Amino acid sequence: MKNYSAYLIDLDGTMYRGKEVIAEARQFIEHLQANGIPYRYVTNNSSRTPEDTAKKLQNFGIEASVEQIVTASMAAAAHIKSHFPEARAFAIGERGLTDALKEVGIEIVEESPDVVIMGIDRENNYKKLRNACLYVQQGAEFLATNPDIKVPTEKGLVPGNGAFIKLVENVTGVEPTVIGKPKRHMIDFALEQIGANAEDTIMVGDNYDTDILAGMEAGLDTLHVHTGVTTLDEIKNKDRRPTYSIETLEEWFK
To answer: What distance in Å separates the CA atoms of residue 251 and residue 243, rounded to the nearest whole number?
Structure first.
């Protein structure tokens, strides 16, 4: 096993499942800390702020600071500010997204936007989706924080943001620019924050279609853990396989 100088770590399905902590997660993080290895939590969950996410981890007994959190909303806001600095945004999403947009000075509007940005919104409704479709057809840039079709919870899999962006894509015929995993935008954003090189960093996650593919796209080695979405049998059927695949995080440092 190669020694890595930095780790990017998924949350849902890797550190916890919904309201339940994954037993080996705390020990995994404690090992990184004990060896002075820097890491960032990299999550496609666009609904929570970094403060919310850090608090959730802390409540599970997992060490986390706000500075260690990288969300798809943060990366999306940075992307919009960089590529469309004067853009006005129509946002479907929760506080994690709207706070991230406001943090970098992006104006959120209900009419005539330059950008439509979609994140998970548990108060979503027909009017919001209808307006998103209309604005994209009128020429607004279409972006999405993440494409997760399903999300693991303690009760089972539930719809993710990808289920809703597919609706808008099917109506408009326009494919969104995805910022979160499996695209590399958020990985590059996290690497820049941590000051690490791709070749010396490993991406850790449970979902092949997001975590593992994002790591591959960004040139990182990848560690697949069988505690969330993608099973070992599914991994065996992939043409491109993760660098490593283990049952639980407890196995990694043995």
So the answer is: 15
